[in-house]
Amino acid sequence: MKKMILMLCLIPMLGMSQTKNVLNSSRYFCKNDKIDEFEKALANHAQKYHSGDWKWRVWSIQSGPDAGGYMITEGPSDWATIDGRNDINPAHMADWNKNVAPLTTNPGSSSYMNFEADLSSVQLTDYADKIIITHMTAKPGKIMATKDLITKLKKVWTSSNESIAVYSLVASGEPGYAMVSRLKGGLKELAPGFRKPMMERYNDTYGAGAWDNYSKDYADAVQNRWSELLIYMPKLSSK
Length: 239
What we know:
By secondary structure, the chain is α+β, with helices and mostly antiparallel strands. The chain has helices spanning 2-16, 35-49, 79-83, 90-100, 143-159, 198-206, 210-221, and strands at 22-28, 56-61, 70-77, 109-115, 130-138, 164-170, 176-182, 222-232.
């Protein structure tokens, strides 16, 4: 009886718990003549101060407007944990400010993202070492229409065995999504013929002419879209 009462008391607490689906993504650029020093300092910082909810995965940005830079993803965590964070002690900040920040060329950028399990064809932590991030910005008033476009794509991704993780931006600029193609098979997945063109696969899934309707809806809802290739750097990341 006592055990049952205890379980009943825990139910409200379980209902209030948050799923760890929040990532913080930051980008930095190091001085051209300080690459080795920057990578060493970054690795030391990540492995000394970032674990658990604050674990770092460090990426080399290979293409796109930020090519040559580094992306750091922190998490996953949840908003309650982020709100109550108290591990940024003076030594932690001093290490960053003294050993890492002076080797960068500008303040960089930072954003928060929620992992959207319902839109994704892969689990949050089912990672790959090579990824393509497609950034999609919605037109004003069209964020739900943009979400609907991605919802329809999920069925195509699943049938084509594509591992796509979808994130929504939170308080981080214009409203939109980041669709992360996790290249489980490596860069060969980008080769012509590895999969049918998206148009064919979409029509196979939804019927002849479906891609034309999708394209019209896309033009009406999406303001901007661009992609980039990134490669994971385990030696610079948290252990």
